[in-house]
User: Fold this.
Amino acid sequence: MASSAKAAAPKSTATKKAAAPAAKKSTAGGNGKSTAGANSGKGAGSNAAVDIQPRLNQQQNAPSPTQRYGTVSQRLPIGLSEPTRRDSVTMLNQLLADTITLRDMYKKHHWQVVGPTFYQLHLLFDKHYEEQAVLVDAIAERIQILGGVAVAMAHDVAELSSIPRVPRDREEAPVQVSRLLDGHQRILKNCHDYADKVDEAGDDGTNDLIVSQLVRTNEMQVWFVAEHVVDSPLTQAE
Ligand SMILES: [Fe+2]
Assistant:
């Protein structure tokens, strides 16, 4: 990462230098800011240079962030106190990290599954991946509504998630299913705990999200996945 940023730096400087004369040409007051908008009104034959150079690599000299992770703002008037919002955001970020992890585990297993149940598990895992992706978005947007900052990137999610690290290796279908069921159960246990807490605090929106979307979806997926590891005869009753 650092090496690519370094590699990009000289390119940015070179681009800036190349763009400089054009910017100067279009700046009457010499304040360094482009007045391309004012010049664009001239006739078609005008030589007025319009600076269309995108301002690249601004992250390399970024100002302080608009909001730091872990803080909760009171910008939106939604009738909830600061402590209530802060507690809900903490719980929701835990659910978000675990749901992102479970979502990605479904895609891993969708790609890597083998065996006699390949076709149905391949399709089922992808269906559950899509449903978990909907939950991820719903949780993250609830965090933003509450004034928090949603955890998002893989390295941060990995640090926060309570689901044990899944190996890179390809695993047998029953092992895949067991990992998924364990992930679901961790999320569901937290859901039951958090639903009570946010209900007591009066955060009805978060309670509704947890009960109506997270609990219902995860329980349904547990059913569909768990039935694949029942040792049931395929052709002849025992
Ligand atoms: Fe696919």
Observations:
- The chain has two domains: 2-61, 82-229.
